[in-house]
Fold:
Amino acid sequence: MKPKIIFLIAVVMISAHPINAQEDPNDLKKQIQALQKRVDELETQQRVVPTPRSPFGQGDWNPFAEMERMQQEMDRLLSNSFNGPAGATGMFSSNMVFDQGLDVKQTDKGYEIRFDMAGMDKDQVDLQIDKNSLTVSGKYEEQHKQENPSGFMESQRVGTFMKTIPLPPDADTSKMTTEQKGNELVITLPKK
Structure:
């Protein structure tokens, strides 16, 4: 980079002062050396930019970068703990999200919402409605028993759920009807 700067400065100097046959080459060499010295000084000033020091004496430690690194590490640990890598076994190897089927569709007369209640007691499901949304909540419980010649295993899954469904402005919530068809709860809302 230095030769480019020197050449550029020399070109500027030459174009500003046309060379006369009378100028001494030693004077030109002195001018070039003076310019070289100034270029070196400017480059040194650019390289020596003071870096902020940590108040903890740890060199160039950045607390915000450290917090971001820690957050990424925690995200990775929690993601692996609950989802687990493929083929994982152990306490957190299964998906812990409760996701019952929910289907919402519009008909000519209104809206029909179907909620899969397989494995749930209808007395454990609660519906709450207001003019803008419908909330389905409740409790679920599953029990699994497995027997084989080498042993016996029993597991139980218990939890609560809540799903809130935004309703279109033309849904008439005052005329909502519900009925159970097999394992499905069917909620009907006519249009206003």
